[in-house]
Amino acid sequence: MPSTPMTADPLLSVRDLRVTFRLPQGEVRAVDGVDFDLRKGEVLGIVGESGSGKSQILFALMGLLAGNGGASGKAMLGGRNLLALSPRQLDQVRGSEMSIVFQDPMTALNPYMRVGDQLAEGLIAHHGLSRDAAWKEAVAMLDRVRIPDPAARAQAYPHQFSGGMRQRVMIAMALLMKPAILLADEPTTALDVTIQAQVLDLIAELARETGTAVILVTHDLGVVARACDRVLVLYGGQVMEEAAIDTLFDHPRHPYTQGLLKAMPRMEGEESPRLGTIPGAPSARRGPGCPFAPRCDRKIVICDRESPPLLLEDDRRIACHVEAADAVA
Amino acid sequence: MAADAENLSTLQLQFARFRRNRLAIASVWVLVLIVLACFLGPYLFPFTGEDADFDYISAPIDFSSPHLFGTDDYGRDLLVRTLEGGRVSLTIGFLGALVAGGIGVLYGAVAGFTGGRTDSLMMRLVEILYGFPYVILVILLSLLFGGGNIALFAAIVFTLWLTPAVIVRSQAEGLARREFVEAARAGGMTSTGIVLRHIVPNCFSVVIVYGSLLVPEVILSESFLSFLGIGIKEPQASWGNLIQTGTSAMDTDLRLLLLPGAFLVAVLLCLNFIADGLRDAFDPNDR
Amino acid sequence: MLRFIGKRLWDGGLTLAALVTLTFFVMRLAPGGPFSKSRKISPEVLANIQKTYHLDEPIWMQFARYVKGLATFDLGPSTRFRDYSVGDMIASGLPWSVTIGIWAILVATLVGIALGVAGAMRRNSATDYAAGIVGVVGVAVPIFVIGPLMQVIFALRLGWVPVGGIAEGWRALILPVLVLALPNIAYISRLTRSSMIETLRENYVRTARAKGIGEGRVVRGHALKGTLLPVIAYLGPATAAIITGSILIETIFALPGIGRHFVDAALNRDYPLVMGITLLYGALLILLNIVTDLIRAWIDPRLRNGR
User: Fold this and answer.
1) What class has domain A1-89+230-265+276-329?
2) Helices B255-282 and C126-140: crossing angle, nearest 10°?
3) Which of A293, B44, B81, C208 has its CA 20 to 30 A from that of C307?
4) In chain B, what residues touch C230 (CB-CB under 8 Å)?
C-alpha cells in the first residue's frame, strides 16, 4: 500500500485516483492510482509524456471527462470529495474555488461571444454581480494580465487576438474569481517559444499575488524548472517520483526521471556528444509490473511482476523496486 | 494496431465497413428484389400494363383472379402497370444519376484542376444556375427540349449535375496542388491525361458518398414531374403518374394509390439507407 | 456592413439578369408557341395576334421591350387568360402561396430545431428514436404520397379538416402547411441534432462548463449559437425546397396559389406567365439568401468584413 503521509493541512488531497475510458476494444486505464497533496499557495508540476494520463487528472478533478470516461478515488477539497459530486454540485466549485486554463487558446474561447462577456459570465453566475460591475472587474483583470487598451479589447472577439493574448485572456478568466486552486493543462505548449516564458511568469506571479495554488501539467521539464515548487513525475498513469524541484533536478533517483533529465538539452554542464534517449515508446498495454519496466535499463526481475509501492524517503516519494532495494542495502 | 492490419487497400477496408452495416445491406437486398421484380416480373404475366381487360374493370384485390392486385378503371392490371412503371422510374433514376454525376465530376475536376479565371468563370455559372428554384428550372428545360421523355431526362440531368460539380471541384482543387500531379506532369502527361487518370480516380470516395444520393433525387424528380403531368405521360406508366391517378380515386379505392406509392417509398428508403451506409463507410469524419 | 449588402445585391442583380435573359430566350426558342395548340386559325387572325403580342418583331426588340416592361413592373399579358395580365394572375395567387409558405417555414424551423435539440440532449432515448423516425420518413417519403394519405386519413375518414380548396378558410390550410413542412422538419431536425452533438464537443463549450455556470447556461449561452449556424445557412435552400413543394401542395389540395398557376402555364405554354413567376421566385430566393447571410454574419463575427 502506498504510504502517503498526511501533509499538514493540505488544500487538496488526492488518493487513489483512477480514470478509465470505455472503448469498443475494451477499457483503458489512463490514470492508475495516483496520490498527492496540494498545499496552499504552492505550484505543483505534473510531468509526463503524452499518454501518461496527466491531463486526465485535471479533467477528473473538474468533472470534465469525456462521455466514455469515469473517475474513482478521493479528491478532498474543503471536506468534499470532488469525484463524488454531481455536475450540479460541482458547478459551485468549478469556476469559483477551482478553475482551469486549457492548452489550446484558439479553440478554448467562444468565437461568437465578446471577450468581456466571457470573462464577466463567471462573476455574474457565481457572485451575482450586475453586468456592469462584472465588466468593470473583467476589464481590470485584462489590465492585470497586461492586455493593452483593456476596455476596448474587452469588446472584441477572440479571433481578433493573437495566440499569446488569447492565453492571457484565459488566465484572466481563470483567476478573476480568485480561486483557491488553478489547474493549468499545458498552458504554453501551443504558444511560440518566445511567448511561453512570459505566460509562465505571468501565471506564477498572479498566483502568488492571489495566494492561489497551481497544478501545472506539462511534458516540458524546462517549464517545470521555471515555474514549479514541487514536481510529480508520471508514467503510465502512475506516480514514479515526487520531490521538491531542486531535489529532483539535482538528485533524480527514479530511472525514468533520470532518463528525462538526460534527454534535456543543457546550456551548462559537460558536453556530451548526444542527447540521451529513453528507448521504446509508451504503450497502452499494461502488464502486472511497473509500467516503466519495459523501457528501464536498471530493472530487476521483480519489476515485471509487481507494481512498485510508492515509498516516502527523506523529502521525496519514489516508486521503484531497484531504488528501494538500494536504499535498504 | 497498425501492425495488425494486413495490406488491405483503403477501398477494401471501406467496403468491409459498409458490409457491416446491416440496415444498408438489407436495403441492398430489398432494392435488388424490387429491381428484379420490375424488370423481369411483367414477363410472368400473360398481359401487359396497357392491355385492357374488359372482364375486370376496376377490380379489387383478389388473389384468386388473374389480376392479383386488381385493375384500374380501364381494366389494366395494377401490379403489372406498377412494375412497368418501376422500370421507367428506376431506369431514369440510375441512368440519370450516372449521367448527371458523370457530367458533374468532369466539370468539377476540370474546373478545380485548371484553377484561375477558367475556374472562377465555370463556378460562377454554377452559382447562377443554383440560384434558380429547382423545379422552375426543370420545368423550363423540359419545355425547352420539347416536353417529351428525352426532354424530361435532359432537364433532370441538367439540374442535378450542379452539386457533384461543386463537390468534385473542391476536391480537385486540393488534389491539383499535390506533388504527384507535378510528378505526372514532369513525366510528360498531358493535362487531359492527368485529369482523367489522377484527379478523377482520387475523388472516388467523395463521389460515392454524394453520388449515391443522386439516384433517389432523380427518381423523386421524375416522380413528381410525372405526378404534375409534366413528366411521363399517359398511357405510359411511371410511379409518379400512377400515384396521381391513384389520388383522384382515393376516396373510394386506396389501392390505386398505395401500390405504386409503397414501391416508390420502399425504393427511396432503401436508397437513403444505402447512401447513409456509404457515407458512414467512406467518410468516417462525418457523424 | 453596407458594402457587404451592396456586394450581395450586386451579385443578386447579376443572377437575376441572367435569369431574365435565360428564361426569355428559353421561352422564345422552345417549340410549340402559345398559339400553335389552338385550333386552326386563319392567316389574318394569326397575323393580328402576332402583331398584338409583338411576336413579329425581331427577337432582340422583343427582349428589349420585355426588359423595359420589367422596369415598370409590367410583366405582360397572360396569353391564356386573355383578360388578365401576368401581374393580375400573380397578385391573385400570391397571398395564398405566401401564407402557406411562411407558415410552413415557421413550423418546419421551430419543430425541426426542437426535435433536433431534444434528440441531441437525450441521445438514444425514446425521444431521439421518435425524432429519428420522423427524420427518415420526412426525407424518404415524397410529399405527393404523404399528402394524399393525410387527406384520406384526416379529411375523408376522420373529417377533421377539409380535403382541399379554400372554401373553409384557414382550416383548409392546416393540412397543406403540415405536409409541406414535413420534409423540412425531417431535414432540419437531423441537421440540428448532429450540429448540436458536434458543438457540445467543442473546446469552448468545455471551457464554459469549467466555469461552473450551470449546464442550462452552457447550452443556451454557448452551444446554441454554434448549433444554429448551419441550420440558418440551410434556410435558403429550405425556402427553395418549400417553393418546390408548394407547387405540389397546391395541386394536391386544390389551392389557387401561384405554384398551381405555374404548372398550368407550363402545360399550356403560357410563356409570359411562366416567365413572370420564374422571375418572382428567382428574386425571392436571392433576397432570402442575402437575408440569411446577414443573419449569419450577425451571429458569427468572423464572417463580417468580407469572406
Assistant:
1) alpha beta
2) 110
3) C208
4) none
